[in-house]
């Protein structure tokens, strides 16, 4: 069987956990979903797993489960390897006038992590890797940011549209995530890659990430047909 990652033609010779094992206590192994992975893509994002988990836990506060996982999984690693993880989390932090500290989020690290997680969920849902003609974009609804109010409203509308369960014709597949206290995901899309796909990741019931997997080829074809129609109308 080939690797789960988009565009990879290598054989899946190892297993990738989705989400990573670091997200779950040792006595909760029922959630350890796996997909086949090549060696390169199994190791590619592992360096960011704890960084992403820390950000999710901190931004899911005051969820008791998020705090529990932070204390068990993240805190013991903060000073490991000369404090590498602590330094990553604190990089670029700014103390505000009220004495609180604002910690920036490295969205590049988050994007790489959620690219891999989304590819894994798609593979687990249908047994095939995401085709190369799909682009991936993530909306981080749970991160506090000073963003354009227009974009904020667009993201709010997207979240509202993809709330709840998919309608029957949009049930792309079921990855069978079964630990709602830590992680669940809903997959919206016509089966067999018949449309663009949207994944709604939810951690600790609070931290939400919407992954938008857009079929670029189909969208381009639609635009071309529309353009031809407009051109023809002007003749």
Helices and strands in order:
Layout: E1 14-18, E2 33-37, H1 39-43, H2 49-59, H3 64-74, H4 80-90, E3 94-95, E4 101-102, H5 107-126, E5 134-140, H6 149-161, E6 183-188, E7 197-203, E8 207-215, H7 216-233
Antiparallel strand pairs: 1-2, 3-4, 5-8, 6-7, 7-8
Helix pairs in contact: 2-3
Explain how this protein is built.
The strands form three sheets. This protein has a four-stranded antiparallel beta sheet. The protein has a two-stranded antiparallel sheet with strand order 1-2. It has helices at residues 39-43, 49-59, 64-74, 80-90, 107-126, 149-161, 216-233, and strands spanning 14-18, 33-37, 94-95, 101-102, 134-140, 183-188, 197-203, 207-215. The longest helix has 20 residues, at 107-126. With 235 residues, the chain is of the alpha+beta class.
Strand content: 15-25%
* Mean pLDDT over the full residue set: 85
Using the alpha-carbon principal axes, give the shape: globular
Low-confidence region ranges = 229-235
Order of helices and strands: EEHHHHEEHEHEEEH
User: Which class do the helix and strand fractions yield?
Assistant: alpha+beta
Number of helices: 7
Helix content: 25-40%
The strand line-up of the biggest sheet is 5-8-7-6
Extended strand count? 8
Gyration radius over CA: 20 Å
Task: Profile the largest sheet.
Answer: 4 strands, antiparallel
Q: Calculate the terminal CA-CA distance, rounded to whole Å.
A: 53 Å
């Amino acid at each position: 069987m080939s690797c789960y990652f988009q565009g990879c033609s290598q054989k899946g010779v190892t297993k990738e956990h989705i989400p990573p094992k670091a997200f779950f206590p040792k006595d909760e192994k029922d959630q350890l979903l796996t997909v086949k992975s090549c060696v390169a893509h199994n190791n590619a994002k592992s360096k960011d797993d704890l960084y992403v988990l820390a950000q999710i836990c901190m931004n899911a506060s005051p969820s008791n489960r998020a705090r529990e996982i932070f204390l068990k999984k993240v805190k013991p690693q903060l000073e490991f390897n000369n404090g590498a993880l602590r330094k990553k989390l604190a990089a670029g932090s700014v103390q505000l006038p009220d004495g609180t500290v604002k910690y920036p989020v490295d969205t590049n690290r988050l994007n790489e992590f959620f690219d891999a997680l989304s590819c894994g969920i798609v593979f687990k849902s249908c047994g095939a890797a995401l085709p190369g003609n799909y682009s991936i974009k993530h909306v981080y609804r749970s991160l506090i940011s000073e963003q354009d109010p227009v974009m904020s409203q667009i993201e709010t509308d997207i979240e509202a549209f993809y709330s709840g369960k998919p309608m029957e014709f949009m049930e792309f597949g079921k990855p069978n995530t079964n630990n709602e206290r830590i992680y669940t995901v809903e997959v919206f899309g016509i089966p067999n890659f018949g449309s663009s796909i949207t994944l709604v990741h939810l951690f600790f019931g609070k931290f939400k990430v919407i992954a938008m997997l857009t079929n670029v080829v189909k969208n381009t074809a639609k635009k071309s047909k529309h353009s031809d129609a407009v051109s023809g109308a002007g003749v």
